[in-house]
Amino acid sequence: MKNNFTMSNWELPTLAQYLIEERRRYPESIGELNSLLLDIGCACKVISKMLGYMSLCTELSDVSTEINVQGESQKALDVLSNETFIEATQRSGNLVAIVSEEMEEPYVIPKNLAQGKYLLVHDPLDGSSNIDVNAGVGSIFSVFRAPEDVIEGRRPVSKEDFLQPGKQQIAAGYAIYGPSTMLVLTVGRGVHGFTLEPYTGEFRLTHPNMQVHKATNEFAINASNSRFWEAPVKRYIDECLSGSLGPRGKDFNMRWVASMVAEAHRILIRGGVFMYPRDSKNPEKQGRLRLLYEASPIAMLMENAGGMCSTGYGPIHDVEPEQVHQRIGVIFGSAEEVSLIESYHHNTEDQSSYEESPLFAVRGLFRK
Ligand code: F6P
C-alpha cells in the first residue's frame, strides 16, 4: 500500500509549474509576475512557520500591542509578517512600491534595488485577533500594474498610484494558515488552491478551478452589530433566521470566525455568504474591512470562482478608491444570495418597511 503520509505528491503540479504553464499563454510576458507570485508564496511559507512555533518563542508570542494606522492593535506577528512580505518581495526587481495594512505610508523599493512594474498591496496577517486562541488566520494580497510614467522612471511613485479599482487587479490571492497551509490564487483565469506539502516545501495544486456554489444555506455576519445594520441587511438576516417558516422556506446555519480569509476559504470550498456591511456603528467609516487589500482581492477571487462580491449597492470591483486605507461594506459569496441582498438594497420600499419587522421591533430578537 502506498504510504501517502511519507511520500511527496509528485504528481501534483507545484506553484512554479502552474505559473510557468500559465505564462505560456502570454508569449510577451517576461516572467516578472510569476517571480513576484513565487516571492509572495515564499513569504507565506515563512509566516506559516512562524505561526507554527509561535507559542514556543517569546519574540513571536508577544501580545503586547501597538496601535497601527487603522487604530487597531498591532501584534508582534503582524509586524513580523509585514517585514517578511517586504523582505521576500523587494529584491527581485518586480515591484515599485508596497502598501500594507501595517504601514501608514507606501513602502517604496529603495533605489539601490532593481525596480519593476508592479504595485503590491497586502494584509500580512488577517484575523490576527485569532492568534492568541490558535485559530485560523491568513495573508491577503493583490497586484496592480504601476502607471507607465512611473515604470519608465519619469516620475516617482505616489500614494495615488495605488488608488485603482479592483477590476484593474492583475492577480489576487490569500494564504490560509489552518491545519494545513494553503495558497489560493487567481491571475484572472479561475481560482486555484495550492497546499503546502511539507516534504518538499512546495505549494502543490490540490484544488484546481475552485467554484463557489450558486446557492447556499449558510451565512456569516457579526450579529452583535445588528442594531447598527441598514434595513436591507436586517431584512435578509431576518428572513434567514425565520428558516423554513419564513419566505425563504428553508433553514439556514450561521458561522462567524472573525477572520475574513477563513470565511472566504470556507465559502470557496462549500459555499455561503459573508457580510460585513456598511452600518451606522461608526458613521464616519464606510464599513469595517479595507477596500484595497481585503475587499478587492476577495472580489477578484469570488468573481473568478463564479461568486459575487458587492458593497450591497454594486460590485466592489467598480469602486474607485479615494484613500489607500479606505474601508468599505462587503458582501460576498454565493451568487444567488449576493444578488438577492443587492436587490434588497435597491428596493427603497423594503428599507423603510423593514424597520418594523418583528425580529427588529421593540421586543424582537435583534431589537434596534
Ligand atoms: O481585518 C479585519 C478582520 O479581522 C476580518 O478578518 C474579520 O472578518 C473582521 O475583522 C472581524 O471583525 P469583528 O471583530 O467585528 O468580528
UniProtKB/TrEMBL annotation:
Boundaries of every Fructose-1-6-bisphosphatase class 1 C-terminal domain copy: 214-345
One protein family per Pfam: FBPase_C
Residues reported to bind Mg(2+) 2: 123, 126, 294
Cofactor note: Binds 2 magnesium ions per subunit.
Keyword Cell membrane: no
E.C. number: 3.1.3.11
Main subcellular location: cytoplasm
Binding site for Mg(2+) 1: 101, 123, 125
Protein's name according to its UniProt entry: Fructose-1,6-bisphosphatase class 1
Name of the encoding gene: fbp
